[in-house]
Amino acid sequence: MKKVRPVVARDARELAKVLGLAPAEGMEIEFRSDLNDKIIEVVSKKGLTHADVARIAHTSRTRVTAILNRNTHDVSTDLMLRVLGSLGVQAKLQFKSAALKIRSITYRLALPSTATRHLLCNSEIPSRCQRSHR
Questions:
Q1: Is residue 81 over pLDDT 90?
Q2: Which of 40, 48, 62, 111 could hold 90 in an S-S bridge, CB 3.0 to 4.6 Å?
Q3: What is the count of structural domains for the chain?
Q4: Beta-carbon contacts of residue 45 (< 8 Å; ≥ 6 apart)
Q5: Each residue of 15-52: pLDDT tens digit?
Q6: Do 39 and 80 contact (CB within 8 A), yes or no?
Q7: H helix count then E strand count, the chain
Q8: What CATH number corresponds to the domain at position 43?
Q9: Where are the beta strands (DSSP E) in the chain?
């Protein structure tokens, strides 16, 4: 029997390379992981329950539980951004050339509900504008 050699990946990009994924998929994994980390951090700091987060974000407790357990395979990036925004945190993206290994995501507290509504209504999913936002 052939001995299996363990492979160590230090970040999402290395993991994508080891798995034979495209660099863009590695960046997506890294971005979603950063979003997930921040959601977990904010929920923990605020001492919120899964039900509290679900009510605030207008989503199901099942989806919130999946996010907080890092089981986000079936959770859209759009929903993760909506949850983060409903918790009062705004993600600010900074774009750089893919050849450079620069990563920057800045978080800022207190996203007003009108700004959230504006962001959601200008997203690629028009059904978001038809819901009532509180």
A1: yes
A2: 111
A3: 1
A4: none
A5: 888 888 888 888 888 889 999 999 999 999 999 999 99
A6: yes
A7: 7, 2
A8: 1.10.260.40
A9: 89-93, 105-109
